[in-house]
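Reading a protein record of the kind used here takes only a little practice. An example makes this concrete, so a full record is given next.
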Amino acid sequence: MSFCSFLAPWSCWVIISLYSSLLFVHVSWAEKRGGYHYHTLHIAARLRETSSPPLELHKTFQQEDEVGKNPWRLQVFHRDSLVGGNVSYEQRFKERLERESRRVKALDRRVERKLKGREKKRKVEHKAKIEDFGGGVTSGMMVGSGEYFTRIGVGTPAREQYLVLDTGSDVVWVQCQPCKDCYDQTDPVFDPSSSASFTSVSCGSEVCSELEEPSCESLGCAYRVNYGDGSHSVGSFATETLTFGNTRVQNVAIGCGHDNQGLFVGAAGLIGLGAGALSFPSQLGSLYGTKFSYCLVDRSSQSSGVVDFGPGSVSPVGSVFVPLLRNPRFSTFYYVPLTAIGVGGLLVSLPQKVFEFDVTGEGGVIVDSGTAVTRLQRDAYEAVRDAFVVSTQHLPRAEGMSMFDTCYDFAGLQTVSVPTVSFRFLNGAILTLPAENYLIPVDVMGTFCLAFAPTAGSLSIIGNIQQQGVRVSIDSVNSVVGFGINQC
């Protein structure tokens, strides 16, 4: 049970706000020179990581036995661990940015479609039945689906599959036999006829009505998930048992995709972690209060991250908590009330209400595990970038690269001092990012770029590069989002 459960909502928020303000003294400490606050960026260490090969999955699952000791924990890895291959850091980075651009465009199209008039459906809760819980996770970038994978079992008996974990999606789905059109995946495609627990959902059921695009076929309810960039999954809707380690979760509503297209890179499907009624957290909500937290690893890391579910997954100790906002037009996304951005300890002058969503649902800021680079509306981005450039006049510049227009030549250097970058929220909480979460290597020679970019759409996104090494906690019961530096 959460500590907020024992308090009135207003008193809970007083405690959270005071705690977050006090915590700022710890998380935002940095060297101060010439009126600016600076962090130390360790160049040599970061470049050594770029030359390391991707983590090998079979070794990881052997080494991470401690995950199995926590029945509410899943292991998380980077996409390169699944795809593998002898590919240079520069090539992997280039491909990553290409996928990133398509992902953001897909989100923008999704928002645009919804704003053109599609009404939100009546919310219907569907709750899964759980016997126990636990498992393992892999990082991967997928167009329209997210960047991080987990290894789970589907059906009875369980057939293990790689599924993407994505906070920007709700529907859980896997590719299924018979395939009308399926992309290549690492494991054999799931055959529902061989599962004793696969049950079709009827067209008139409440869970079917919760789908954004439901339809009816001869075997019952059918679903279609479009990601805005041409990627999609179409098939029958059903309930099935999912297995994580030794834990079986029964009666999970999933899509059984017979027609699937997209650059899904080896994964069998997707497990949605969004805020909508059909997401995995929502289906398990009555069992653990719709709470979970995650730690995402750097793509060149030789370790794994985690996703934790359950009452103990969200801890008030060591985290900055901010309000979780609800946008009635976009129930999937996790909105946060970002109000300002600081560079070097000084607030950047930004257009008024640039981070708010309006009465139509347009705009706002979301936390997204599937988008790599933090995206800001152009006016806001240019103001932040210009402030960063002014406070880095002592650093050698380099030419821009792809979507990045603010880059530096750190070749031959061991460490450099860089201005701090911080997010300020409506309740006064401040999250100051580690230096490696906003200045990242784009090659092995020492070119580093500011990992922020402008967006052509109205939606701003806090991306997963800024989240790496930070425990992100989602507590839908108490409507808070937590950010814990050094809590992974």
